[in-house]
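Quick start: what a row looks like.
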Amino acid sequence: MKDTLLRQIYEQTLSGAYDQNTVATLSETLQVPKNKITFALQQLLQEGRLIKAEGKPVRFLSRAALENQYNLSISDTKIGNLELWLAGLAKEPADFEKLVGYDGSLASLVEQCKATISYPPNGLPLMLTGETGTGKSLIARLTYEYASRQGLLKPDARFVSVNCSEYANNPELLTANLFGYVKGAFTGAEQTTPGLIELADGGVLFLDEVHNLKGECQEKLFQFMDQSIYHRMGDNKTWHTSHVRLIFATTEDPEKVLLKTLQRRIPMNITVPNLSKRGTYEKVQMIHSIFKTEQQRLNVRIKISSTVFRLLVSYPFPENIGGLKSTIQSSCVQALFQINDSGEMEITAKNLPSALSKNISVASLNKLEEPAWIYIDELLDLDHSAGNDLTFYQEIIESLENPDTFFAVWKAESSRLIQHLSGENSALCEQRLYESVRHVCAGYHMELSSKDLETLQKALGSFLRQSRLLHFLQSQNPLQVEKLTLQMKKQKFRYYSMASEIDCMLGRAFDYKLNDLHRLVLALLLSGLEKQQAIPKRMGVILAHGLSTASSISVCVNQLLAEYVFDAIDMPLSISQEQCIRELNDYLKKMDGIEELFLLVDLGSLEDVWKGLNIRNVNVGIINSLNLKMALSIGEGLKRGQPMEEIFETAKNTCTVSYHIERNREKQKLIICSCASGLGVAEKLKTVILDSLPPDSSIHVLTYDYNSLLLKGIEDLAFAEYQVICVVGTLNPNIDRLPFVALDDLILQESTNSLDLYLKSYMDPCALAIFKKNIVKNFSLSNIMNALTILNPTKLLEHVANAIDRLQTLIDCQLTNNTCFGLYVHVSCLIERLVMNRGIENYKQIEHFQTRQKQFIDAVCESFQDVEAFYGVHIPVEEIGYMFDYVKNDKNFQKCV
């Protein structure tokens, strides 16, 4: 069956009938159950014989058919936008088509380059100016390729490039290399040698960094540029001729660095824009292109977190495209060993250079939640036609940003959105999905005419089709979208609640997941469709402290009751009660016609709330208890139409509080590994200790951040959940009632007895004997070094030992063996972290340390110069602080101070 299935897909791929290659269609065509088709397709995918085109529905293509059709090798196994991907296969880009932005921001530049190189008879000299890393060298080469493809150059014409900065202080050498020289022209000229101008005859000569040329070097070019003739160095009689097209490049202002006479001979001066002026879409194209190259080089599929994508797009790289490329390559190196079970390289913010990662908080870097991934192959799913939509939604975000005009602007933008989504190019959404959305709207008493319902179905189809685009925009405007969401919850809660409920419905029934921007756009859409909001006679309002406490409870209750009964007002903890009452009054102004108001508050004086309300002819019931059970009870009463007093009495009686505490759990035993050298070292130390424990041991071993241990001590949650036996590490945190075993003592076999003392209550004599034997075996310096470093441990230890010897000489103190061994391990791990760009950036009272211990800091800097040079790192003063913490407790050092 599998061969028949593969043959069917092959034939339909060749004929272009890709829509016939879905599970449902293949099952119907071959008369085979869907589950068997799905199983066979998975096997063929794993064998690499099919390519999966994601979307709704998923389509499958024959790799062999496509490779035969397009005469190329295809490495992709999964693709996003099928049409865009096929378009890329069909056409091999030529000359300027290889340049990102050739038909966008660089369109005018490309036309100028084409015209200049084509100008008869031999083109005109061309100057490219722009910041470093903007792509001037690439543009020069592509100009040559264009001229060659257009037949403007000889078939064997060459592109010859020379970097003038190499000759800035040696004009004679430039003359020799450019014009050539004869035998005996200077010492070492053993034979006549043609110059670059001769080698480039009939082609293109590219002079990069031309601003580095001295005046006399510039003058040597004049005659050649005017008449195309020159002398070789050492021969002033013989004239040589060469017809080359000249391209110059500089990062400086030509008016300031070039002779006027040279400037006059270069009629065309083109400025290459920096990366910040290239636009978001072109930057995305560059990110895709660079990552694609690395993906092919490493032969692994790459995916990046949404945080990485946002930083790469938004960061103002000083080195422009060159800096972007360097950053991407560096991130791939850092993530080289982060290949998941599916064979994919995962790049997160931790893999970025510090210049970028410092733009996000430490909390964001250390998040445990699974990040939102973007596959490199799918980056260009936002094709160029999305440009207008990107601009449209960006305008909406910017127009709603002012909280003072939010309410007024909302209405205008909602009308504009409906017009945009339901235009000529709109497509109806799936009927089942549309009916589900319509059902949610009905629960909120949203009455729509038949014309409005048709508009809703069209607009939903366009909205869902633009889902990826909205994900992209959210990544570009995270702070603005967050502020708009808070504003929407505050001023347009009803529509926010509707959008949230639709989000849950889409997730359950259709596997769609919306973000904040999706919900904002959806709320705008629904608001624009409702001509006049239906105000109920009775309404509940939840008033609670916290950014989303009230809204979360109200959305939950509305969904459980399948009816809109509660609005919400969220109060940040910093808000005053007067501000809260003011917001409540603003809300009531919009609810003209309401007869009864049920108010649920979490904190504060009910009397103060009541006195502050500016309402007449409305019954107001207030209850000062708030939880989901209470809100649900009151909501059910509202839905059944019960009288206000009966609703409150029922809620009061059913929402009593009870509790129970079970105190029979025995705490698990724990050894904590905590190292000043970093969590990575603690993890590896944990592995060594686990290997030393008997196989049936119930003792747990966990790692813990050293700075957190110093800050929280035994008050941390870990000490409540576990019975901590001791801490093993590189530096004593000096916490009361917390035994400590030093790593250097274990290496020197000086602390095994104290460790036995801590463990004997939790192991029988036989298990303790096994543990002692393993400790002696595992905690040799050689084993620890092999376990703690990814660098060559022997070479690293040799460098570190020499540096510590020099340090002892400079501070005039012979440290004890324990201190030296501790420093060996700590500094080796320190060097490893610095090589991996994971240096420690915090040290308590750093200014005080720098002032009081300047001599020690200088001694470390001098002692470790060779280590820093060999490994290409710099030891920051914060790291030196932790080294000093080792040394200051040394008994010999204390005598010397």
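That is the whole record. The CA atoms of residues 698 and 709 lie 24 Å apart. DSSP finds 44 helices and 23 strands in the chain.
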